[in-house]
Structure to design on (1068 residues):
């Protein structure tokens, strides 16, 4: 039987606000335990929440970026359950009236095809604290610094049909939130976390199969691996005549498998009801229009512009718009050097290669975009030749100079284009190599073409690589042919 | 001096008749001598009060000082007070010394008042008799065999007995008005959102409101002016300027349209209370007011709606008491569930548990629509009753309670206790203001028991309510009567 | 709607209230009478009525995104039952 996999994602994005969603405590990462848990975050008796305007603005921007409907009224509800990292015994969330309604995210697959993935809604909620299990004489330590950090939960429709599509969707969400600047998107620090719903059904069947929810799959790669494992597990189970149980599972990256989180599933009853400490959030059209005007150019728009206006290939435009950091870097290089194609070649060639070798992200590049732009300018205006350019790049990478021009000067790499100087060097080479000159002159045209390389090499060597190779070639030909 | 109102004490302090220190000492001595019989205070902060009095006296050298500077008050023990135990009447918070001040505590301190301590109350404000307090019941100063009402029973009893000239209470379903009526004092529940709830331990967030309890409407006006106002820390507090309530107290009542809700004079109303309220209304007629009957058709649904909404909110509000960050923690928990279950079973009393269970049950899957959603729909109908009534009349009047104060230990059955709040609870559901003033007495066991007249107005009509109450007190002397214990000297 | 012993036990568990069988039986009785009183709500038709969560028709005010709260950990942990190295301690949480 042919099986179809059906996937839906719930992505939690930590919003990049300075303060928490309902209090004035800092959201900075990595502080001393509980040093950023204020009275409101601790849920002290008598404290009350007040909503952070930046969290609202960020959620609205996301909604607009995915062409979602932004309802005029949204409401916060309480999700009630006990857990030590949940100080109040309830999480303030949005169950019935979320801030962002249905929208769509476009994903691009490996073959360049695109697909629209529906977003059911996105809502605001507060994050919980952290439980630390090590070394407290068998007890668990609770750090509430993260409690109250604003989260936006983006709930997709079950529109994905493969692990690759799910990973592409997650990447698209990552690109949108980082483009908008509403999250740092750092998955390693938990700024983006993902729950995956997976089910399978016989191809052609309309009804969905029973789904399993895989919790906290926190990298693009793990999402693919977890889905592929889970899909196989369910298919095998069904083909053996078993049934898939609706349950929560955990992905273990080391064993590359998912496993059931609880042996005895405890029925949750979160008793959602509207939070009486918070009033309905009302967003008028003027506010929404204002947020819309402040939207930056988004990945899809950028990709189109790179192709249509800058004349880049679909492939180049796709890669260079894949993250805001990459796109911003490229645009600086392009603006400084004035040549989009050369800029694209350098960013994707020399720079990406070096970054990959050192396992660095573009944000960590030792060569700033402005510096690379300066270098590419000198290539474009023929100040240096390709070989020298690679040397300059390496010098910039090693921090040997602040600008390409400084390094070109210091190393004397400027291309020699003065005809007189080149002619002098050619004359010398001809004088030093009489035997080769004779051979050349006796050869036919086809052979001459190959033999001239030797003389070019000698002249370049004499110029320590700075002579303009095209000029050398032309002048040599002229001289040898007359000699 | 224990017989004076806030306004009178302020004048006397200004005239140099006594110092703030002498004043505070006199009240502390009364508490020391008399409160053993009443149990109206949970914590007395004598040292802090005396130190504050010295500061107030030192400042008095100049001419400029706030009206309430150096004057004692008391705070219901639901109000977070930095450095002072804030128990909420519960074993759960018996060890809780608040690390911060409620907004109203800051405002009161800013006006120069001096807190003598924290008054007794029903546990987590859940009760109508002060009998659910972990610290034992408070006794009614008029008749020690009677309850003082609740949940702000300690505040009411302390003011009535002259242990403090005024106090702050909170009112979720009648918790200021009912004990004020039972103890023969004046008490105001402001419009929801008029007074900040920040730092007031939550019982039912959409109903809770703090307000003044004092001898006179004029004192209530002065205190309300002090504690009211917009608070950036409370999303439900209202951005609306605070009027000069005392400036409005001289208005004539000629032409005032009074409505008497038919449903507030029905079955279950004690004849003595009925008679006292009708007499009071006659007084108003003599002052030029007109009276007509009005209907609030959904009155009978107020208690049912309240006993869904309040416990639902409470069940969630009280989840934070888990033995982890503050409050009672059981000994040697064997695991996490044991920590939760035992800490909460030990820390909460029976009535609190009962309401947590009702609230949890009515919010749970399968019951939410039938109970919670239904109650919220009925809540709108109840508010609409008042909106409609205030199209016809300026204020509504009726009894504050169906009977005078009942005996201690008389109401064993929770439902019969809940029914005591029949005339006060709808006001919280609608969010409107209400005031109670002393309007007569009924026979008791060891003494007479006071009767309260309740006056209701539309949202933010506090000025009018205070004036209507003040005019009554200008023409009657019920509010000047004192229980025997108040006549005793320290 | 009647309330059963099992409903009370379930609510007690959800609310993390330790209750023995005798307690539970007692609460079944109490809660039964309270809910019987509450059932009067069913006598009124509310099909067309919007539920009301707040007494005033006000809307949420938004706070500027500013850090206003300093570190007061030691101050806040003075009322905590059990802390170590700045962490609140609870019996081991099994993941």
């Amino acid at each position: 039987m042919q099986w179809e996999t059906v996937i839906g994602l719930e992505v939690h994005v930590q919003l990049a606000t300075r303060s928490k969603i309902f209090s004035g405590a800092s959201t900075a990462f990595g502080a001393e335990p509980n040093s950023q848990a204020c009275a409101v975050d601790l849920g002290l008796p008598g404290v009350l929440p007040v909503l952070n305007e930046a969290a609202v603005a960020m959620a609205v921007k996301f909604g607009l970026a995915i062409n979602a409907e932004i309802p005029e009224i949204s409401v916060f509800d309480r999700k009630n359950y006990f857990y030590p990292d949940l100080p109040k015994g309830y999480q303030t969330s949005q169950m019935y009236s979320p801030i962002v309604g249905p929208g769509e995210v476009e994903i691009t697959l490996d073959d360049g095809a695109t697909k629209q993935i529906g977003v059911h809604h996105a809502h605001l909620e507060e994050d919980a604290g952290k439980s630390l299990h090590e070394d407290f004489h068998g007890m668990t330590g609770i750090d509430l610094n993260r409690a109250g950090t604003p989260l936006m939960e983006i709930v997709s429709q079950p529109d994905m049909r493969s692990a690759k599509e799910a990973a592409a969707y997650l990447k698209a969400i990552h690109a949108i939130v980082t483009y908008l600047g509403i999250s740092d998107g750092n998955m390693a620090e938990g700024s983006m976390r993902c729950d995956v719903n997976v089910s399978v059904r016989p191809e052609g069947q309309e009804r969905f199969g029973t789904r399993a929810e895989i919790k906290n799959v926190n990298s693009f790669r793990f999402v693919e691996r977890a889905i592929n494992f889970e899909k196989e597990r369910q298919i095998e189970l069904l083909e053996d005549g078993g049934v898939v149980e609706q349950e929560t599972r955990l992905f273990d990256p080391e064993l590359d498998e998912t496993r059931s989180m609880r042996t005895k599933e405890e029925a949750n009853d979160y008793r959602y009801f509207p939070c009486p400490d918070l009033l309905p959030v009302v967003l008028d059209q003027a506010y929404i229009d204002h947020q819309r005007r402040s939207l930056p150019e988004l990945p899809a728009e950028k990709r189109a512009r790179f192709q249509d206006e800058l004349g880049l290939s679909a492939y180049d435009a796709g890669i260079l718009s894949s993250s805001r950091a990459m796109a911003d870097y490229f645009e600086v290089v392009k603006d400084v050097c004035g040549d989009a194609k050369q800029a694209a070649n350098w960013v994707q060639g020399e720079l990406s290669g070096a970054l990959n070798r050192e396992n660095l992200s573009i944000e960590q590049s030792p060569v700033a975009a402005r510096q690379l732009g300066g270098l590419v300018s000198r290539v474009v205006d023929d100040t240096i030749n390709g070989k020298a350019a690679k040397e300059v790049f390496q010098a910039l990478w090693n921090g040997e100079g602040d600008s390409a021009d400084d390094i070109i000067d210091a190393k004397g790499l400027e291309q020699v284009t003065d005809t007189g100087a080149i002619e002098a060097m050619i004359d010398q080479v001809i004088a030093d190599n009489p035997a080769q000159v004779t051979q050349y002159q006796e050869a036919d045209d086809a052979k001459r073409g190959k033999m001239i390389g030797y003389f070019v090499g000698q002249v370049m060597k004499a110029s320590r690589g700075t002579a303009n190779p095209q000029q050398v070639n032309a002048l040599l030909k002229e001289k040898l042919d007359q000699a | 001096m224990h017989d004076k109102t806030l306004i009178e004490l302020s004048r006397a302090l200004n005239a140099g008749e006594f110092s703030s220190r002498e004043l505070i000492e006199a009240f502390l001595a009364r508490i020391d001598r008399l409160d053993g019989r009443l149990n109206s205070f949970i914590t007395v902060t004598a040292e802090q009060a005396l130190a504050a009095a010295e500061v107030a006296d030192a400042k008095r050298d100049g001419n400029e000082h706030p009206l309430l500077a150096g004057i004692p008050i008391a705070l219901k023990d639901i109000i977070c007070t930095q450095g002072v135990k804030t128990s909420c009447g519960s074993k759960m918070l018996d060890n809780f010394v608040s690390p911060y001040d409620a907004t109203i505590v800051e405002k009161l301190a800013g006006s120069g008042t001096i807190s003598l301590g924290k008054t007794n109350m029903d546990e987590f404000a859940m009760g109508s008799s002060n009998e659910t307090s972990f610290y034992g019941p408070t006794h009614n100063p008029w008749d020690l065999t009677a309850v003082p009402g609740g949940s702000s029973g300690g505040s009411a009893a302390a003011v009535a007995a002259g242990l403090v000239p005024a106090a702050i209470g909170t009112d979720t379903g009648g918790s200021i008005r009912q004990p004020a009526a039972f103890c023969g004092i004046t008490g105001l529940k402001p419009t929801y959102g008029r007074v900040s709830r920040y730092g007031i331990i939550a019982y039912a967030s959409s109903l809770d409101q703090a307000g003044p309890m004092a001898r006179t409407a004029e004192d209530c006006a002065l205190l309300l002016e002090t504690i009211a106002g917009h608070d950036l820390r409370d999303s439900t507090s209202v951005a609306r300027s605070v009027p000069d309530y005392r400036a409005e107290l001289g208005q004539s009542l000629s032409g005032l349209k009074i409505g008497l809700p038919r449903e507030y004079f029905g079955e279950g109303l004690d004849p003595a209370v009925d008679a006292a309220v009708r007499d009071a209304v006659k007084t108003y007629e003599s002052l030029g007011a007109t009276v007509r009957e009005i209907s609030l058709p959904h009155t009978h649904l107020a208690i049912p709606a309240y006993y869904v909404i309040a416990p639902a909110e409470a069940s969630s509000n009280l989840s934070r008491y888990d033995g982890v960050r503050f409050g009672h923690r059981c000994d040697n928990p064997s695991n996490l569930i044991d920590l939760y279950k035992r800490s909460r079973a030990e820390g909460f009393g029976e009535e609190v548990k009962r309401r947590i269970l009702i609230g949890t049950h009515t919010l749970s899957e399968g019951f939410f629509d039938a109970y919670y959603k239904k109650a919220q729909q009925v809540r709108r109908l109840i508010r609409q009753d008042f909106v409609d009534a205030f199209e016809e009349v300026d204020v509504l009047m009726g009894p504050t309670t169906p009977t005078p104060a009942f005996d201690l230990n008389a109401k064993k059955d929770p439902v019969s206790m809940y029914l005591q709040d029949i005339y006060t609870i709808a006001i919280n559901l609608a969010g409107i203001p209400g005031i109670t003033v002393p309007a007569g007495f009924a026979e008791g066991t060891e003494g007479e028991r006071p009767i309260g007249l309740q006056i209701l107005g539309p949202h933010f009509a506090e000025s009018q309510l205070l004036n209507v109450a003040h005019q009554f007190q200008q023409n009657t002397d019920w509010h000047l009567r004192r229980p025997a214990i108040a006549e005793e000297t320290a | 709607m009647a309330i059963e012993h099992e409903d009370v036990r379930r609510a007690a568990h959800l609310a993390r209230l330790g209750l023995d069988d005798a307690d539970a039986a007692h609460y079944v009785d109490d809660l039964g009478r309270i809910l019987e009183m509450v059932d009067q709500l069913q006598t009124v038709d509310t099909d067309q009525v919007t539920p009301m969560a707040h007494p005033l028709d006000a809307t949420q005010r938004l706070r500027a995104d500013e850090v206003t709260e300093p570190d007061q950990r030691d101050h806040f942990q003075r009322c905590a039952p059990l802390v170590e190295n700045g962490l609140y301690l609870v019996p081991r949480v099994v993941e």
